Amino acid sequence: MALTEVYWDHHMPLPKLAPIQAKVTVALVALLCFINSYDGEFVFDDSEAIVNNKDLRPTAPLNNIWSNDFWGSNLSSNSSHKSYRPLTVLTFRLNYLVAGGLHPVGFHVLNIVLHAVISALMIDVFAILIGGLAYDEKGRILNHAPKTSLLAAVFFAAHPVHTESVAGIVGRADLLCALFFQLSFLTYCKAFNKGSDRDDRFSVQWVVVSLLLCAAAMLCKEQGITVLGVNAAFDVLLICNVNVYELSQRLLLRKNPLDVSEIFRMGLLTRLALMGLGGLLMLYARWRIMGTGPPAFTEVDNPASFAESVFLRIVNYNYYYSLNAWLLLCPWWLCFDWSMGCVPLIKSATDWRMVWLLLLWCILIGLISQALCSQDSQRRRTLTLGLVLLVVPFLPACNIFFRVGFVIAERVLYLSSAGYCLLLAYSLGHCFCRWSKHRRLLCVMVLALLCVYVVRCALRSHQWRSEQSLFSSALSVCPLNAKVHYNVGKNLADKGNTSAAVSYYREAVRLHPTYVHAMNNLGNILKEKNELIEAEQLLSKAVSIQPDFAAAWMNLGIVQNSLQKFEKAEKSYWNAIRFRRKYPDCYYNLGRLYADQNRHIDALNAWRNATVLKPDHSLAWNNMVILLDNTGNLGQAELIGREALRLLPNDHTIMFSLANVLGKLQKYKESEGFFLHALRINPNAASCHGNLAVLYHRWGKLELAKKHYELSLKLDPEAPGTRDNYNMLRRKLDQLKHSAP
């Protein structure tokens, strides 16, 4: 263990702050960078992981978070992404309980606070990795590199690549994983604080606690298990002070026999065995929890993993690594999604982008050679541990061990960026040490870099505040990404701007001709615009590409029904139900088809199925009441209407339909009550005023009838039949007036 000051640290142009002051400073920098995202909306993946995730609701059993994936789907389902992060989902649920609902401010604030805490704790992590492990008499970590560790932590706090993890609420998984990762590492370090001068003694209890914290990190995000690799490297290189270069020379050249007695005496093998056993148990438990095996990703998710040859796969994976490295070096071009053509595949060795692969490996080989072969033990240790912290947390995302479901994901760089920040701070320390004559210029450059980081974080955080700004910002970064155009179009359509949405959906389909979701959404808009022929063509193509696309089958059925292709429409609806058995909306639309064909029994059965699957399906209940009313089954219509209102006591449309039925049954008082209740909920419903007026007209309450006819005509002067009924009433009132004595 290194117990001396790091020689380049005192050259750093930073004040030597007390530990608390340093941590507060770093935390404030982190807050400054991301505070403007506190009042953002739920964006992008937040919709699935939070807004539509039933596991967050207090009504859902708490046990569900232990059997469902991150998105609320059962882990045993073949459609599950197998991302098992129950502790992260638990914090979402706590946010929901504290805020009393889905209010994004609380979610965002907790993310920002977590990043500030993690950034502050990074000082301790960097202090150990740079300056070695030492404790004072009170058991506190001694920082032998206070300035370098402070600078590295400030870089980490302000790095723009963290924006997705901090400003995007789903990034909570990365934040919690990083927090438990740090705690596991720092706890592992505690195992060597025995209050004794003997370096060979360690605490098994602290090693076990470190393993438990590693398990907690893994329950926040799968990447958490990589802390075991960092702990092992730290133990070998810093605790046991093993010179990897010298060790490899002895093993390869067999010059001097390897003396393992010292390693045995220090307990290294025991600790490695404990970590190895703990890691294997975690992986086994994780595999059992996944149930049906790893998730099945498509070529769209990760095209390089589907490349024709092993050579092309390796080349493209390495190109992805170089792009990740570029995001750490120059985090200006950031995008919420890098799939679907954003990064075109390298298909031959003559592609000019091969230069980036060569450059990446030249830099890595240079760093590794310095880390292994340098005569300077401090440099050797710092570079090696920096590279470990850079590479090891990235391993689960590198496609080596298993196929991942993305091309590039900025969030997976959250932990790896710590290694980059350590190496950057080390490099700057050496620059200040060697080029003391240019100290002022170097200070200006460091300050400028930090200012650029802070400004970029603020700008990027602002973009993450709404889906419109987030999706639009990606158009300049990834103009060839079909998903970017799709999301911009979807956002515009959700806001009612369907005309603008059409052009983005068309571009998404042009860029990715098999993009079935874009075809489906475009088909829906064209259906609403009554451009039914093109809508049918698009939806037919979508289901031919993906035959189990239930939503597209249903939408195709709606279009075919509008085109009066009733047999085809019925087949499309039943295909949708075949691929999604619990599909209440499809049963509802099937009922409408049967009603149009006067197949009343089939229509009622379809709508009843919709209400069984979704008891609050208002449209299905209302259509049943209306159909029974129109066919003269008033008694059954009354029963259905009352049943519906027991489930939906404040649904004014069902009240209106039931009131009409009761009026025809001459139950005027009850009918009046439902009409008035419906009007209290929706006072501007012209049809409700009109039908209530008809009721009063029949009932003989002519002045009340006159009042509601006039209200109906005021709200809708063109209301069918109302004007005629009103004129009839006025004539009757005139007759009564003239006939009065």
Automatic annotation (TrEMBL):
Instruction: Note the segments forming the TPR repeats.
Output: 482-515, 516-549, 550-583, 584-617, 686-719
GO BP annotations of the record are:
endoplasmic reticulum unfolded protein response
EC main class here is transferase
| Source species | Amphiprion ocellaris (Clown anemonefish)
Which InterPro entries did the record assign? O-mannosyl-transferase_TMTC (IPR052346), TMTC_DUF1736 (IPR013618), TPR-like_helical_dom_sf (IPR011990), TPR_rpt (IPR019734)
Q: Which PROSITE patterns match?
A: TPR
Top-level taxon:
Eukaryota
The text of the family note is: Belongs to the TMTC family.
- Give the enzyme's EC designation: 2.4.1.109
Pathway annotation from the record: Protein modification; protein glycosylation
Q: Name one Pfam family in it.
A: TPR_16
Q: What is this protein called?
A: dolichyl-phosphate-mannose--protein mannosyltransferase
What are the alphabetically sorted keywords of the record? Endoplasmic reticulum, Membrane, Repeat, TPR repeat, Transferase, Transmembrane, Transmembrane helix
Gene3D superfamilies given for it? Tetratricopeptide repeat domain
The UniProt entry lists membrane topology as: Multi-pass membrane protein
Tell me a GO cellular component: membrane
What are the subcellular locations of this protein? Answer: Endoplasmic reticulum; Membrane
MF terms from GO for this chain are: dolichyl-phosphate-mannose-protein mannosyltransferase activity
Domain DUF1736: start-end pairs: 293-365
Q: What residues form the membrane-spanning segments?
A: 112-135, 201-219, 225-247, 268-287, 354-373, 385-406, 412-429, 441-459
